[in-house]
Each structure stands twice: as C-alpha cells, then as structure tokens.
Amino acid sequence: MDFSLGEELEAVRDLAREIFTDRATPERLREVETSPDRTDTPLWADLASAGLLGAVLPEQDGGAGLGMAGLAVLLEEQGRRVAPVPLWPALVAGLAVAAHGTPRQRTKLLPGLASGDARATLALEEFGPADPLSPRTTAVPDGTARDLPRWRLTGTKAVVPAPDGARHILVTATTDAGPGLFLAEPDAPGTTWEFAETTTHDLSGHLTLEGTPAEPVGTPGDGTVAEVVRHAFVALAAVQVGVADGALRYAADHLRERAQFGRPLATFQAVQHQLADCYVDIDAMRVTLWQALDATAEPFDAADADRAALVAKWWATEAGLNTVHRIQHVHGGIGVDVDYPVHRHFLWGKQISSTLGGAGADLERLGDLLTAGTVTS
C-alpha cells in the first residue's frame, strides 16, 4: 500500500495546516468556547473560501473530487489544532448526498456546503447501547411530494453534532426494508430539540421526531446507512490522529523546556518511555486509518471496508484516548489546567473515544463481522 499523499492531498494538507495554525489559536479557541453556538464561523468561511470544503465533493457537484482521502487529510489538520468547526458531520453528510441523493437533493445541499453558506449535520446516535446500523428511530412511507417519496420519522436521536446553524439533517431510521437515510429540515413539523453541552464544549442537540416529514437519500435497505456509518468511523479516526499528534507536540515542547533536578524532563527515561508509547500508538492509528481509506476506495468489497473502518476506529478510540491521557499526565499539574492548550486535546480525545460507541462496542462489532464473514446491516 502506498502511504504517500500525492500532490493534490499534500496541497490540501499544507493549506489546511496554514489556515488552522493562523486561525485556531488558543486565544481564539477560548473566545469560541464562550460564544452562543460554539462554532468558529469566520474559520468556517475561511475554509470555504480556500476551497477546502468543496475539495472533498465530486467534480460534477462543483468540488475537486478528493473524497474521503481529502476529508481525512483535512480532519487530521483540524484535530491537530482542535479547531471548533463541524467538519466531519457536515462533509460526511455531503458525501452521502453526492453519492446517493437525487439531482434535486444535490442541488439543494451541495453548493451551499461548498460555499460555506449552508451546513448539514448527521443524526446517527441514539440513547442506550444502540448500534448505529440498527436505529430504533422508525420511518414509514407517507405518499409523495414533488414526485419524491415522502416518509415520516419517529424516534429520538442523541448528541446530534452542531445543529445550531445547520440547514439540513441526515437521519438514520429503520424501515420494513431495512435501515434508511433520510433528509429532514431541523425546524420541520414534529421536531423538538434539547441542546446539550458536550465534553469538548460543543453544543449538540438531542432530537425528538414525532412524525417528522423527510425524503429518502438512496433507497432504504440498499446499504447507504452502512456506507455513511463506515465513513463516520473513518472520519472520527482521522480527527483523532490529529488530536493525538497535536497533543504529542505540546508534550515534546513542554518536556524540553521544563527542568527538574537540574535536567530537562525530556531526558528522564520514564518520561521517554511514555512518549515512545504515544508515538507508536499514533503511528498505528495513522496506518490503520489509511488502510481503511484504501479499503473504501472504488472498487471495494463492503465486508473488507467495514472491517478496516472498525479497526481504524478501534485504534482511534483505544489508543487515541490512551495517548491524550498519558500526555496530560506527563504535563503534571498544568495538564489539568483548563486554560492550558493540551487540556483541549484531552477533552477532544475523550469525546471521540465514545462517539458512535466505545472500544468495547467496536470490538464486538468487529467480532461479529469476522465470525459472520459478511456485512451486517
């Protein structure tokens, strides 16, 4: 497998790194954490004007066609600076509509997403030990509207990321034909929101649906939900690689500068072993991430892609949390100071480690795939 990025992806990485480094400063992060919607809107506009939001979308929809590989590069740079913009839910939603939406749905959502004028988000999680591939939220057909089948959604979605400012929501729900993906409006009849602050200081929303009208994206039971969940797993893994790598860089700088007993802390063997473990874990996270991206590139085998995505997510969940925990520990007392930058990396790593299920849930799903030898949906 070729791990080199290539010219286009290197350009995305370099431009994203420059923007995030310039804009996502610790001072700016503190400012956004106390804002009403907890999203850095000017940064989002900068990413759009630089073409980074549209870069992942297909060329036929005005993008550069870089897909999940481009998104992974962008998300890793975001994670490195823990920049408060809802990239992964918005762009995974955009890729789903680009791949499975009708021409009208693509026209409705994708130009605004690429320009930064309109965001989308994903409603994949539910309360309790719910498998995102088997949502408890239900969808029933309700005739047609504008020559499109119309459905009604009923259920509760938990921790919908960054709903404030989102114009569209992609909701997973179970139908008689299997799980389906549906496009709904956040203020549609039958929607009720309860906003909740997350570990990372983002504002999420618990969404209650009571007969909410929605349009299908793709056909229920056709594997669209499995693809979206797979992409979400890979996207979360990409963010976590950046979060862990950014935290490690803070630790290296801190230990070089701080001395004890007349020696830099970086020269103590116990500390070196801790950071060596972090380095190895981050390398494994990055390798499994790109293995998953390679497995999901066209043409691909769905079973192989699902297994690779779960392996990447498990490494991001388990090793990512271990890394940010070790790094906070080697910072000593300053590591738990909420005004010190590395604390944000710990919070991000902690939240990502439980999004769409923790390490135990990942291993259970992976075990089911390995023993069944087929994709379950």
How would you characterize the overall build of this protein?
The protein is of the alpha+beta class and 377 residues long. It has three domains: 7-119, Acyl-CoA dehydrogenase/oxidase, N-terminal domain (Butyryl-Coa Dehydrogenase, subunit A, domain 1), CATH 1.10.540.10; 122-217, Butyryl-CoA Dehydrogenase, subunit A, domain 2; 224-372, Butyryl-CoA Dehydrogenase, subunit A, domain 3, CATH 1.20.140. Helices cover 51% and strands 19% of the residues. The protein contains eleven helices and nine strands. The protein has helices spanning 7-23, 26-33, 41-49, 67-81, 87-100, 103-115, 224-257, 269-296, 302-330, 342-352, 359-372, and strands at residues 119-123, 138-145, 148-161, 166-175, 178-184, 191-197, 203-217, 259-260, 263-264. Strand 2 and strand 3 form a beta hairpin. Helix 1 (7-23) packs parallel to helix 4, helix 5 packs antiparallel against helix 7 (224-257) and helix 7 runs antiparallel to helix 8. The longest helix has 34 residues, at 224-257. The model has no long low-confidence stretch (mean pLDDT 92).
